[in-house]
Amino acid sequence: MSGQQRMKNENRGLAAVRAAAMLIDERTEEGVSLAELAEAVALSPWHLQRLFKKHMGISPREYQDAKRGERLRNELRQGAGVAGATYGAGYGSSSRVYERAAQHLGMTPASYAQGGKGAEIVYTLADCPFGRLLVAATAKGVCFLAFGEDRTLESELHAEFPAAARIERDDALLAPAVNDILEYLAGSLPHVDLPLDLRATAFQRRVWQELLAIPAGETRTYREIAERLGLPQGQRAVGRACATNPVSLLIPCHRALRTDGGLGGYRWGLPRKEALLDLEKRLTAKA
Q: What are the residue boundaries of the HTH araC/xylS-type domain, all occurrences included (predicted)?
């Protein structure tokens, strides 16, 4: 792709993000879904989610929540009662205000139940410095990322989502996400920030949130993570939550080590874990 064409695509994407943000601004009170936003700007929900986060730094849902919070504060400053301000800002009940106050992984709720029931998943395969890379996604975000060999990787994907309605390859749709991942693995992109669509227990989400809080180039021990969660004896449970992370690069479980500083385990092999840690040290040293 020429530089001129890339610039045209960039400008087109930015215009779509601006239009989506304006629609959210106009409909703060009643709210607008990702599907409605995507239809309004003629993009797929997946593509819009990715572009919005790239240009705005947050997802459409997070932007909508921020706007509602802003309106809530304005209503309260103008003398509206708590109940009136809550509904005026577009929250269905006061409990929604407190739900949104909590910090989450920035993930959309998974679109499928246990086993991926009913999910429609696309995937792609590509060469990377660690062998073959598989990236799979629903319309809402990446749901699986793995390293290995083609036949093994495809088997693992089907085993992860045995009840999915559809799993098929679509290289073109996932090309932008894969390009970001490959640039990161090549050391030319400081971080990868893609929308996710994951199944998780409440405890797994807490562990994964702690993993996301570890800066690139740094590590934490399983014990340190457990202590931050208020579970000083919970390092084994933390280790299990790391081992079940289906997007091991995007949620950086490779940054979790044994208490003695050893590598511990890694779903995609210890050599890859060590290589990822070395890569991130080099990137942060350059920065």
A: 18-115
Structure tokens, 268: 């995609």
Residue 280 and residue 185: Cα distance in Å, rounded? 9
Burial class for 189, CB neighbours closer than 10 Å (0-12, 13-18, 19+): middle
The parent domain of residue 278 ranges over 200-286
Q: Is 57 left (phi over 0), alpha (psi -120 to 50) or beta?
A: left
Q: Is residue 206 part of a domain?
A: yes
Q: Residues 55, 17: contact at Cβ < 8 Å?
A: yes
Which residues participate in catalysis according to the annotation?
253
Q: How far apart are CA 272 and CA 270, in angstroms?
A: 5
**Which pLDDT score, from 0 to 100, does residue 53 have?**
82
Q: How far is CA 257 from CA 56, 149, 207, 240, 251, in A?
A: 33, 26, 14, 13, 15
| Domains in the chain, number | 3
Q: How far is CA 267 from the centre of its chain?
A: 19
CATH classification of the domain holding 220: 1.10.10.10
pLDDT tens per residue, range 64-91: 877 776 665 555 445 444 334 333 444 3
Read off the pTM.
Answer: 0.65
∠ at Cα 236 (233, 241), nearest 5°?
A: 120
Q: Which residue has the tokens 């993993």?
A: 211
CATH number at residue 65: 1.10.10.60
